[in-house]
Automatic annotation (TrEMBL):
Entry keyword set: Signal
Protein name listed in UniProt: PKD domain containing protein
Organism the protein comes from: Actinoplanes cyaneus
Signal peptide: 1-25
Length: 420
């Protein structure tokens, strides 16, 4: 307890910081964010931002990078793969843990901590592969959290209460067999024996969970990735679980919509999935090189979450051949990011220009939660490979990517659109 009190009271570069309970799910917002990003966020000067999390008034940024500058670009500091800044004014925190590999995922923790997952093997010189818990005040590793994966990486993390969900390419955590998906005790990192998804992929070179999300009430989990079965049942690339109780199990929701193959070589073409704030539906973002308007390659698709049996998408937003990697849902809008050029483009094909009715939405855009059609919001960004992370906060939408132009302004791989 003494260590926790000291951690919470630690002084940052910008002063004392209090830590309320963590928020993890996308949050409902009253309107659509402005197309003009704020001017005070810091800049990541190289590499890619893969992950974002917020704890209190601190934003944590993870990825594969080495240098960060303040908003004015007058001061540059070394930050390898992870750093933090003040959500109020963009001031860069002193938080600077050392990890020897990329950070792919972040999740808020209690008492001024953050969980980080990725391709690293050591944290501040100590062996802890793939997953760690860090004190924001000092950057130190929480040594009471002992989880580590056997090999591979952790690509996604989510916290709900005293539970931590992890997905990636691992096959065991702490010596306990868990293929690509696990639930852990958020305090100790111990594997929860009540949840084993039993993901498998006969014929696949490697089973992996690319992304997952959990409803805000902690009752449902949806996972996407390279797998063909869950708990012995056919679940191609996507599965939903009931996780509200002490035990967890695959539920009767399923879809065959992602069974058709996209471009050869994609063991999964699903890249991200997010629940709506009320948990009633989720949206899946996909790549895959579209070859037919009948497939869900290079699309975003909405599915209703609270039904049973075979499901078809409520709507599909098609880019016409460009990848989507990230999604955020706020109520008034579904935000989508990737390296797309167009929305509303079911008849366009990559290399042949837009089809009838297509609208320009370079790199980022928003669609109606009801219809899936493009909204007028069109800030634009330098496309690059694409947006990799969205984070909804009460005052707006944070964006992490691999390029340095957002909303027609310079923003090095990081920016925030405020609520209008």
């Amino acid at each position: 307890m003494r260590r926790r009190l000291l951690a919470v009271a630690t002084v940052f570069l910008t002063g004392l910081v209090a830590f309320p309970p963590p928020a993890a799910a996308d949050i409902a917002q009253s309107g659509i964010v402005s197309a003009n990003p704020v001017d005070w966020t810091p800049h990541v000067l190289d590499g890619t931002v893969w992950a974002l999390a917020v704890v209190g008034d601190t934003v944590i940024v993870g990825g594969a990078f080495t240098k960060v500058a303040d908003s004015s670009r007058h001061t540059t500091v070394a930050r390898k793969n992870i750093f933090a800044f003040d959500l109020d004014d963009g001031s860069i925190r002193s938080f600077a843990p050392e990890v020897d590999g990329a950070i792919y995922s972040l999740a808020p923790g209690a008492d001024g901590t953050v969980y980080a997952g990725g391709a690293f093997k050591t944290v501040n010189g100590a062996g802890q592969r793939g997953i760690t818990r860090l004190w924001l005040g000092s950057g130190n590793r929480d040594t009471s959290f002992r989880a580590k994966v056997n090999w591979g990486d952790v690509r996604v993390l989510a916290t709900r209460g005293d539970r931590l969900y992890a997905g990636g390419t691992f096959t065991a955590i702490n010596g306990t067999d868990r293929v690509a998906l696990a639930r852990l005790d958020a305090e100790t990192g111990a594997v929860d024996k009540g949840f084993d998804a039993q993901l498998s992929g006969p014929g696949l070179s490697r089973v992996r969970v690319e992304h997952l999300d959990v409803t805000a009430d902690g009752r449902k989990l949806v996972a996407v990735g390279a797998f063909l079965k869950a708990d012995g049942y056919t679940r191609v690339q996507i599965a939903q679980f009931d996780v509200g109780g002490s035990s967890a199990e695959l539920n009767r929701w399923y879809t065959r919509a992602y069974e058709p193959q996209c471009m050869k070589g994609f063991d999964t073409y699903l890249r991200q999935v997010k629940f709506a704030p009320d948990g009633s539906y989720f949206v899946v973002a996909a790549t895959g090189r579209a070859s037919s308007a009948q497939k869900l390659c290079d699309s975003a698709a909405r599915f209703e979450a609270n039904r049973i049996g075979e499901q078809r998408p409520t709507w599909v937003q098609r880019t016409g051949g460009d990848s989507l990697y990230a999604v955020a849902i706020t109520g008034p809008a579904v935000y989508l990011g990737g390296h797309q050029r167009w929305f509303d483009n079911p008849y366009g094909t990559d290399g042949n220009g837009p089809g009838p009715g297509a609208v320009s939405r370079p790199g980022i855009g928003a669609v109606s939660p009801t219809t899936g059609r493009a909204l007028s919001w069109n800030p634009t960004r330098a496309r690059g490979v694409g947006v990799r992370a969205f984070l909804t906060v009460p005052r707006g939408l944070l964006v992490g990517s691999d390029t340095d132009e957002l909303g027609k302004e310079y923003h090095g791989r990081l920016g925030m659109f405020p609520l209008s």
